[in-house]
Amino acid sequence: MNLVMQRVNEMEPARFVEWFGALYEHSPWVVERAAALRPFADPGAMLAAMTGVLDRATVEEKLALVRAHPELARRAGLDPDLTRASQAEQASAGLDRLTPEEYARFNRLNDGYAARFGMPFVICVRLSDKALILSEMERRLAQAPVEELDTAIVEIGKIATLRLTDALGVLAREEPGS
Predict the structure, then answer these.
(1) In this predicted model, what pLDDT tens digit does every residue of 72-101 receive, in sequence order?
(2) Helix crossing, 100-117 with 145-173: angle to 10°?
(3) Which residues are catalytic?
(4) By CB atoms within 10 Å of each CB, which of 58, 68, 89, 165 scores lowest?
């Protein structure tokens, strides 16, 4: 086990949640539950534990997790609850630089998606671009609600994976004990 994972495993539960709670947008409960499953051999095992927490979550908890995510391209710069991670992720896909036509299309699709599924559209924007996001919004509007909830949870897993890599990188650069 490397030094970073040793530090992760030795963290007090509150410190663990402080470091990793933002992996799941406004939903530290995932990380809180995973903390009890330590020690983790490596980042993959840590992520698997968190995925297991989601697998065991109720439908209501999964819906709450999805609903904690912002609507894409609508709230940037307007919503004080939009996390820095979400702002940066949306910017990475160019969602902070939409033409008026693109903005209108995103709004139409967001409205249609929310009306059909009762939750915001979630996709790992760091692995996407504007064109792919719009295409996926249109395609996924045809899915059944249960299938779409599962798809959103898979996308949240991709987001958490990237955020975990970032958090472990910061932890690796931090002096032990600080």
Answers:
(1) 876 444 455 667 887 788 878 788 888 889
(2) 120
(3) 69
(4) 58
